[in-house]
Specification:
This protein has 14 helices and 16 strands. The chain is an alpha/beta fold and about 400 residues long.
Length: about 400
């Protein structure tokens, strides 16, 4: 079976390598980023084999090796004979990949976003238009692992496996058989953990956006009061998280739960029980890897899957660092995470003071404009995946095919 994997970053490296353990599955990679694509192609040409070091749930360490079948930038070649397409690429590249694939989309195709990121369904509607109605579209709430690629085409590592990962279809009345088949294939590719489960509807996956809650909140907590001077000690992103960042994270999560409550009243058939407060979410996906479950604060700071993840920094001179505000924690997780959540809140008349605080700070350090005087009216709103940028003006347009 041929699977098309879109992307060439951390997750794509890991997924393509793990999939080689299934001899009947061939993974083709569509990479639209020339520097990484050419380096990976050259690596394979020179005989290098990608290896992934895995820290397993039981504490053991294993290494898995294997290369994808092919890497290309040609969507026509990539889509030939494909029944399953997997997006494992940054959200800011979703539009371009969807545009490149659109001419080759055929009825019966299954598209899986792993993860979908908040607002993925609105991007699909905007780009694939009527074609989307003949495609089985599924989104999962996050990547299956905390992972990192350290050398293109050669080396990656899994720091922690999530234990359960929930997904949902775009269409309420979706093709259950096609969904079940796709999930079974993906489960074989990634192995036993995390357990992939279809749980209600894609809107719940957008609301259950782990990255949109964690990353901007902790960046805000760490750097909101930064005095602009370089630092010498590199802070760990989660293990050194401060009370401000975690309080903001909890407040953002509570606002998402309020959006969920408003949606449930408006459309009870959606069944949004999959949307958990952030503390419960972390306990569900990282249960045994969290060493202190006393509170959200202790859970974030004791999750061994996060132990080696550092704050994104730039070295200004040897041994001195400043925050890197061009990191995906802000350039992806604000426009393709928190902004679409804020857009959903607007349509459901839910107040979001915590989100507004983080968005206001983030746009000040990234040079973007999304919020103006408390309204989603900034000049850069249309580069985001918020429902308004895709034409939604009514609450009823938040869901459905």
């Amino acid at each position: 079976m041929k699977i098309l994997l879109c992307g060439d970053g951390n997750g794509a490296h890991v997924f393509s390598c793990l999939s080689t353990q299934q001899p009947d599955i061939r993974v083709y990679i569509l990479s639209l980023y020339k520097p990484v694509r050419e380096k990976w192609q050259q690596s394979i040409k020179e005989g290098a084999v990608l290896s992934v070091d895995c820290r397993n749930l039981d504490g053991t360490q294993t290494t898995i090796s294997g290369n994808p079948t092919a890497i290309t930038d040609d969507p026509a070649t990539a889509m030939e004979g494909v029944g399953l397409v997997v997006f494992m690429n940054p959200a800011f590249t979703h539009y371009e990949y969807l545009k490149q694939l659109e001419p080759f989309v055929q009825p019966g195709l299954t598209l899986v976003a792993l993860p979908g990121q908040t607002g993925f369904e609105y991007a699909v509607r905007k780009i694939w238009k009527e074609k989307r109605k003949d495609v089985n579209i599924i989104a999962f709430e996050s990547l299956p692992w905390a992972c990192k690629m350290s050398e293109i085409g050669k080396k990656a590592a899994i720091f922690g496996f999530k234990e359960v990962l929930l997904g949902g279809p775009m269409q309420v009345a979706s093709n259950n058989k096609a969904t079940e088949d796709a999930v079974a294939i993906l489960q074989r590719c990634i192995g036993p953990a995390p357990a992939l489960k279809i749980h209600y509807y894609i809107c719940g996956m957008s609301l259950n956006s782990l990255n949109a809650i964690l990353h901007p909140s902790l960046m805000y907590g760490q750097w909101y009061e930064w005095d602009g001077k370089p630092i010498s000690d590199k802070p760990r992103f989660y293990f050194d998280a401060n009370e401000l960042g975690i309080k903001v994270m909890e407040d953002v999560s509570n606002e998402i739960c309020s959006i969920c409550e408003a949606l449930a009243k408006n459309s009870p058939e959606l069944n949004l029980k999959s949307v958990d407060p952030i503390f419960e979410f972390l306990l569900r996906v990282y249960n045994d890897q969290i060493k202190d479950k006393t509170s959200l604060y202790t859970a974030v700071r004791s999750n061994t899957a996060y132990e080696e993840i550092m704050h994104p920094l730039k070295e200004t001179e040897p041994g001195l660092f400043v925050p890197d505000f061009t990191s995906r924690y802000l350039t992806e997780d604000i426009p393709f995470g928190m902004i679409p959540l804020r857009g959903m809140a607007t349509l459901m008349n839910v107040n979001t003071p915590a989100m507004d605080k983080v968005i206001g700070w983030a746009q000040s350090v990234t040079g973007k404009e999304y919020l103006v005087d408390g309204a989603l009216a900034g000049k850069d709103l249309w580069e985001t995946s918020c429902p308004q940028s895709c034409g939604a003006t009514l609450a009823s347009q938040l869901f459905g095919c």
